[in-house]
Design goal:
The protein is α/β, with parallel strands linked by helices and 404 residues long. It is built from 12 helices and 18 strands. The chain has helices at residues 9-19, 33-41, 66-71, 81-92, 167-177, 196-205, 236-239, 246-258, 280-286, 290-304, 322-337, 372-388; strands spanning 60-65, 75-76, 79-80, 96-100, 109-112, 129-131, 136-138, 145-147, 160-163, 183-186, 211-214, 227-232, 269-274, 310-319, 343-347, 353-354, 357-367, 396-401.
């Protein structure tokens, strides 16, 4: 028994459909590489929609080179002049705007200009995010909060400097640039209360809001008829995440958020700020070229042995003592190498400690032709032996098949 079983809703739907002899429809403008590969191979049926609803025109996607904008001093805060001008024109025309920044809070962290101290979460290996409205420093992993004071807790100097852009700070900057505009923010902080999410959506639909600033929750499933401009403050965060699915997720998020513009036809545009306007993923996005993007990704997946050419099994190990965790991971890896041909790690994830538990991950790459039941049996026996080692009795082992 596991209190929080890990599963993919898509795969669970497939299993349920087989149990009830039912059909499953998977619908997406940006399917996963695995799903599209199954469709290409004939495992899934494939139906393609080549036009938008009511033949609405796709928005024009263009990029703002941030390197050039900073060099030419064409920045106002975190907004480049082309985006500011586009917002002005859209407001004059009486249409609506969505600005996307996938980081809530006011800033990623606060740094002392005198001693460079950055407030850290005492339980996690992350800096605390500054939330200006509540005057709090907050950990987005464990929920720890600390009251914000401008005086540095390390040296006492009053010289705080915020680093990184959050939705709160973006809202402040946009309001300063467009004081008469009606601006709202949609993120986890503003939608915690019951019905708050729906109230924001309804207000935007009634055109009571001119500019909606939001995180990833605004990228999908929303249909606003008067939105003719979408601005993305930074595409670069998505492109360089250390994960083999990083480019896939970047393509999905940018394409989906672009799709919020021009839903009922007419001219609309998407402006994406980036330091890498020539990046291959961004070229595919601007051309709405999923097919070419897929071909590049599938070749790379085959070359490096990632899904859909292998199954990935991730074993996440947790313990409050790092040396014990290292010993446990080395013991387990030795056992895995005796049973599986491809084992990677142990390696710490991007955030290596959460809620006072250190974390190490071990990956198993399982060839598609390998028996899944045999692999499950081998792994289960090894984990039972692992649990019997008294030194590792408090080490938590979580198995995640096909982690996302």
């Amino acid at each position: 028994y596991e209190a929080s079983p890990r599963y993919h809703a898509r795969d669970a739907a497939m299993v349920l459909s087989r149990m009830h002899q039912a059909k499953v429809i998977l619908g997406s403008a940006t399917p996963t590489i695995e799903s599209y590969a199954h469709a290409k191979s004939g495992k899934y049926g494939l139906v393609s929609m080549t036009t938008r609803y009511r033949d609405a025109q796709m928005p024009e996607i263009s990029y703002v080179d941030l390197s050039e904008a900073y060099r030419k001093k064409q920045m106002s805060g975190h907004l480049a002049q082309p985006l500011i001008q586009a917002i002005e024109e859209t407001l004059v025309s009486g249409k609506q705007i969505i600005l996307f920044q996938n980081r809530r809070g006011y800033a990623s962290f606060v740094e002392c200009r005198q001693c460079a101290h950055v407030p850290q979460c005492p339980s996690c290996d992350v800096s605390l995010t500054y939330h200006q409205v509540s005057m709090e420093l907050r950990c987005h992993y464990c929920g720890y909060t600390d009251h914000y004071t401008p005086a540095c807790k390390a040296c006492g100097t009053i010289a705080p400097e915020t680093q990184g852009l959050g939705t709160q700070q973006l809202e402040e900057e946009v309001q300063a640039l467009f004081p008469s505009a009606r601006i709202s923010r949609m993120d986890l902080d503003t939608t915690r209360k019951k019905h708050a999410h729906q109230k924001l959506i309804n207000a935007f639909s009634r055109q009571e809001i001119d500019i909606l600033i939001g995180t990833q929750m605004i990228t999908k499933g929303l249909d606003f008829k008067q939105v003719t401009l979408v601005g993305v403050l930074s595409a670069d965060n998505f492109l360089h995440f250390p994960d083999f699915r990083a480019h896939e997720r970047a393509f999905q998020v940018l394409t989906q958020v672009a799709g919020r513009a021009g839903r009922v036809g007419g001219e609309s545009k998407v402006l994406i700020q980036t330091f890498q306007p020539q990046h291959s993923v961004l070229k595919f996005v601007s051309n709405y070229d999923y097919a070419s993007f897929y071909e590049l990704q599938i070749k790379q997946r085959e070359q490096f042995g990632y899904p859909p050419y292998t199954r990935i099994i991730r074993i996440e190990l947790k313990h409050k003592n790092m040396s014990t965790l290292i010993s446990a991971s080395e013991w387990l890896k030795k056992g895995l190498l005796a049973r599986f041909s491809q084992v990677l790690g142990p390696v710490a994830p991007t955030v290596g400690r959460v809620r006072n538990y250190y974390i190490l991950n071990i990956l198993i790459k399982l060839p598609l032709e390998a028996s899944q039941s045999a692999a499950k049996n081998r792994l289960s026996k090894l984990l039972k032996s692992f649990e019997m080692v008294s030194a590792f009795s408090q080490v938590i082992a979580i198995v995640d098949v096909d982690p996302q």
